[in-house]
Amino acid sequence: MRRARIITGLAAAGLLVLSACSSGSGSGSGSAGPGGVKPPKIDKLASLGSGEGQVNIVAWAGYVENGTNDPKVNWVSDFEKQTGCKVNSKVAGTSDEMVTLMKSGDYDVVSASGDASLRMVYGGVAAPINTDLVPNYKDVQDFLKMKSWNSVDAVAYGIPHGWGANLLAYRTDKVNPAPTSWSAVFDNAQANAKHVTAYDSPIYIADAAVYLMAHKPELGIKNPYALDDKQFNAAVDLLKAQNKNVGEYWSDYTKAVSALKSGNTVIGTAWQVIVNLAQADKAPVAAVLPSEGATGWSDTWMVAAKAKHPNCAYKWLDWVVSPQVNAQVAEWFGEAPANAKACGLTSDKGFCDTYHAADAAYAGKIWYWTTPTAQCLDGRTNVTCKDYAAWTQAWTGIKG
Q1: Are 246 and 192 in contact (CB under 8 A)?
Q2: Structure confidence by residue, pLDDT tens digits, 141-193
Q3: Which of 68, 98, 129, 394 is deepest in the core (most CB within 10 A)?
Q4: Are the C-beta atoms of 170 and 184 separated by less than 8 Å?
Q5: What is the set of domains in the chain, with CATH numbers?
Q6: For 26, which DSSP code?
Q7: Which of 281, 379, 325, 398 is nearest to 136 (CA)?
Q8: Which residues lie below 8 Å from residue 232, measured CB to CB, with a gap of 6+?
């Protein structure tokens, strides 16, 4: 298993993301964008016809594998043989790049994260999905369906694919007792000074906000991506204090693995796959989802509003979320599969237990990445929240 996506890809600073508010449990579908904006009226595909001979896909690295990177990792060739739809794929490094590519009209399908999906919905780039035409949708975990990042007004705009949490990893030989709270890297970070690690992105400010939600309720934070001046300054101050104890920030997961193995890092933010790789090399590493909850990601397959190959696009959606393929992608990529039946088909029979794939309560503790906007994503209208441009500027100051 490996984590193919090195950087999650947040929207470029200054871009307005029309996103409904997202909760830790992704409770419900978003009904409108900021200011009451509604998605443009776009008809969903009414019936499935013959394939058009090809499908053009924009995806995160590791989601569309044809054996080129590893001969044993190939779920594209059989799709092409069975459907007659040739796959043309483009790897995107950021969510902003995904949106730009989809706007070009050259692509039919995209594997969007939560900071891009609703931008495409409200921008008229993505079409509603007729889930009746995706038979494998019925087996997708219910706690991933019809959530604020993949639906609007009870209309599905995508097929959930995979998800994961940002965990607190630690060296069991250096950190005792075992941590249960993010306090180990915030208020109590001094105990492991210069050996703390953190994710290198402005979105990491949300991790501080999640901590403050639990430990400073007087700030009134309801959504870690919706921070007014006072809340934002509190999160920034917490991260500036943490900075004195950070040995290194990471965005390349392979470097995070190396740091944990060498002991340069003894505690900090990590993905499950980072922990797995370190443990595979016999490093004394463990991880926990802290009591406060965590940030994380949930990806969605979406179809372009003006897809030139809509039938092949739908065939791809059904294929990639099928139990066998969803299991393959999840293991290669390093995330929990969305299809409940995928867990019985992973090569590692303990994979889904490790990734909490069927654990709705676990998933409910995750605040899925969403790009901050000036229009508060928690529904407040009497204040202005800090947008991603402000987060980016603050991140530079946090790191000194």
Answers
A1: no
A2: 999 999 888 998 899 999 999 999 999 999 999 999 999 999 999 999 999 99
A3: 98
A4: yes
A5: 34-163+297-365 (3.40.190.10), 165-295+371-398 (3.40.190.10)
A6: -
A7: 325
A8: 205, 385, 386, 390, 394
- Please give the pLDDT value at position 19: 32
Residue 252 has pLDDT above 50, yes or no: yes
Nearest to 207 by CA among 3, 391, 17: 391
Task: Quote the DSSP letter at residue 332.
Answer: H
* Helices and strands (H, E) in the chain, number of each type: 12, 14
User: Which of the 8 DSSP states describes residue 190?
Assistant: G
Backbone angles phi, psi at 38, to 5 degrees: -110, 150
Cα gap 111→224, rounded to integer Å: 24
Class of residue 327 by CB neighbours under 10 A (exposed 0-12, middle 13-18, buried 19+): buried
Q: Are residues 356 and 363 in contact, defined by beta-carbon separation less than 8 angstroms?
A: yes
User: Please, which residues bridge with residue 198 across strands?
Assistant: 249
Round to whole Å and give the CA distance between 325 and 25: 26
SS3 217: helix
Residue 256 backbone phi and psi in degrees, to 5: -65, -40
Nearest by Cα to 238 from 255, 251, 224, 257: 224
State the sign of the Cα–Cα–Cα–Cα dihedral 227, 231, 236, 239.
negative
Question: Average pLDDT of 87-113?
Answer: 93
pLDDT of residue 258: 97
Angstrom distances, CA of residue 310 to CA of 46, 48, 146, 299: 11, 9, 22, 20
Structure tokens at 125: 């780039």
What is the overall mean pLDDT for the chain? 89
- Strand 267-270: give its sheet, edge to edge: 246-250, 196-199, 267-270, 167-171, 285-288
- Average pLDDT of the segment spanning 313-324: 98
Q: Check residue 344 and report its DSSP letter.
A: G
Tell me, what amino acid is at 399?
K
Q: If you search the block for the tokens 């013959």, which residue do you land on?
A: 50
**First-to-last CA distance in the chain?**
35
CA distance 381 to 338: 35
Q: Could you tell me how far CA 257 lies from the centroid of its own chain? A: 20
Predicted confidence at residue 37, as pLDDT, reads: 65
